[in-house]
């Protein structure tokens, strides 16, 4: 079994997915498989290049389950290297080759690459041939230079935007916990599971990605219910609460409260500020 598969989960971001596919086509070493998983997205699901699809969950988008489904498809197609890319990410021409090389060199490490958050695109869109000129990795995460690998990375800094692992490591981890539905928590849980699986976390400077601009809310108030629910799932599994910065920001706005046992609770609509 040998081959590199890129797994991308998509819901509605059709333009972003098209640009990601175009950037992958410019790779110095193209992936053997691009496994696109459509989640509650009949347009993408109908495309002949879409690998598989999932319906929405009543609680929200089942992103963790979709990533697991994508990995299953990739493994069934013969991949030994799994690269996970957020649909918003464009790739540096060397990203696929860099992940494939580092995973095969050190298969007991889960590898991440630096991600640059791009500004709003110009009228003609991003120039995929000159993305490297925009390279400015997010300051909240490690950003090794080209040719540099960092091992023993902090699990709390793991991002699911762009990462790669061997199939053996994936099986040891057991994939993403599918208890998480909707926004937030599943990648923090995944990193904690890696750390508890006698595997390492690392960053590789040659696997650079570029996150396409889109509007965001800070804090993400449209995801309050998801974040509260997933934070409690994490607390039950690991004994600590993730996403505290967001939860505290919600608390300041009267959107959440704390229970007597430390559990965070969403304030019912209309009750905030009363």
Folded structure, characterized:
The termini are far apart. This protein has two domains: 208 residues, Alpha-Beta Complex (Spore Coat Polysaccharide Biosynthesis Protein SpsA, Chain A), CATH 3.90.550.10; 46 residues, no CATH class. The chain is built from eight helices and 13 strands. An eight-stranded mixed β-sheet has the order 3-2-1-4-9-6-10-8, with helices on both faces. A three-stranded mixed β-sheet has the order 5-11-7. It has 274 residues and is of the alpha/beta class. The longest helix has 15 residues. The mean pLDDT is 95. Belongs to the glycosyltransferase 2 family. It comes from Nocardioides glacieisoli. Keywords: Glycosyltransferase, Transferase. One of its GO terms (molecular function) is glycosyltransferase activity. InterPro entries: Galactosyl_T_C, Nucleotide-diphossugar_trans.
Which percent range describes the beta-strand content? 15-25%
Please tell me what the overall shape is: globular
Fraction of residues in H or I helices: 25-40%
So how many helices?
8
Q: Give the class from helix and strand content and strand pairing.
A: alpha/beta
Poorly predicted regions: none
Reading off the top of the CATH hierarchy, the class of the largest domain is best stated as: Alpha Beta
Q: Kindly provide the radius of gyration, computed on alpha-carbon positions and rounded to a whole number of angstroms.
A: 19 Å
The arrangement of helices and strands along the chain is EHEHEHEEHEEEEHHEEHHEE
The number of distinct β-strands equals 13
CATH topology of the largest domain: Spore Coat Polysaccharide Biosynthesis Protein SpsA, Chain A
Overall mean confidence score, pLDDT? 95
CATH H level, superfamily name of the largest domain: Spore Coat Polysaccharide Biosynthesis Protein SpsA, Chain A
What is the distance, rounded to the nearest whole angstrom, between the alpha carbons of the first and last residues? 61 Å
Taking strands numbered 1, 2, ... along the chain, how are they ordered across the largest sheet?
3-2-1-4-9-6-10-8
CATH architecture of the largest domain: Alpha-Beta Complex
- Total domain count: 2
Keywords: Glycosyltransferase, Transferase
GO molecular function: glycosyltransferase activity
Pathway: Cell wall biogenesis; cell wall polysaccharide biosynthesis
Protein name: Glycosyltransferase family 2 protein
